[in-house]
Amino acid sequence: MTQPLRIGTRGSPLALAQAHETRDRLIAAHPHLAAPGAIEIVVFKTTGDRILDRTLAEAGGKGLFTKELEDALLDGRADLAVHSMKDVPTWLPDGLEISTLLPREDTRDAFFSRGGQSVDDLPAGSVVGTAGLRRQAQILERRPDLKVVPFRGNVQTRLAKLDAGEVDATLLALAGLRRLGLTDRITAVLEPEVMLPAVAQGAIGIEIRSADDATRALLAPLNCPQTAARVGAERALLAALDGSCRTPIAALSTLDGDRLTLKAKVLSPDGRQVFRAERAGAAADAVALGADAGAEIKAVLPPGFFLP
Ligand SMILES: NCc1[nH]cc(CCC(=O)O)c1CC(=O)O
């Protein structure tokens, strides 16, 4: 029998759901892969899964959720790695590439509060738990009277902490909740005007060895060109900004036919300073539009704005 195609993934329920979606799409495109043993899902624990007592910004380092999967690709323990593109660093290791983007889920953030209030109705002084600086900065931009505290753990853990009263409210990506079937608990879905999403939020990307033409060919029918253009624009913005995970950066591109619109925002962690850029143009120019918007913001940021 030939070697199985090995899908590398993290072990969180969301990561496993995304690995299973990838397997199902592979089988739909190539029915022979439904044979027993043709596809194997291999679970790897990443640094981000181990560190649960600090925020990601404090843990520092890029690729907290991707490095172990990339090591497995590079030394042949996996043939493809499935990632939330939101967690994929701007620069990939030599010899690897994102070959495929699956059709994007909803990009918005979902808001949960114990009392059922939305962001604007929370009583002053309410405690919002969030892991990320992007959500912290935008919550404080709109509601400087709220208190934001660090909040880690996978989706289920965070909802349990909310129930236990550790915080009054929290936010999670709607995409992950949809994939886990956990949307019934949502208090409100936040529009991008209130909470601009993270770069590539809601997109699943598949990483392979650049030299692995066989796996690239198998994955080709799974690629969604619209998602690729949108994520291409947003990640080009990130590259041009050359920020770190300690910088609140938010961006969203949308497509109307072949016309791509990109909205981008860089904030100070306390939400007091906000820098925006917007671009629109042909989808074929997605990367240039993103890079251009990033350069525009970078040019006006005060010196030392990005923490190392
Ligand atoms: N490691 C955090 C992470 N990475 C991707 C998602 C959600 C799914 C997505 O945005 O594609 C989440 C959880 C969250 O932010 O609520």
Automatic annotation (TrEMBL):
Pathway: Porphyrin-containing compound metabolism; protoporphyrin-IX biosynthesis; coproporphyrinogen-III from 5-aminolevulinate: step 2/4. Its EC number is 2.5.1.61. Belongs to the HMBS family. GO terms for molecular function: hydroxymethylbilane synthase activity. Its cofactor is dipyrromethane. It comes from the Bacteria. Keywords: Porphyrin biosynthesis, Transferase. The keyword Transferase applies. Monomer. This is Porphobilinogen deaminase. The modification S-(dipyrrolylmethanemethyl)cysteine is found at C245. Transmembrane segments: none annotated. Tetrapolymerization of the monopyrrole PBG into the hydroxymethylbilane pre-uroporphyrinogen in several discrete steps. Binds 1 dipyrromethane group covalently.
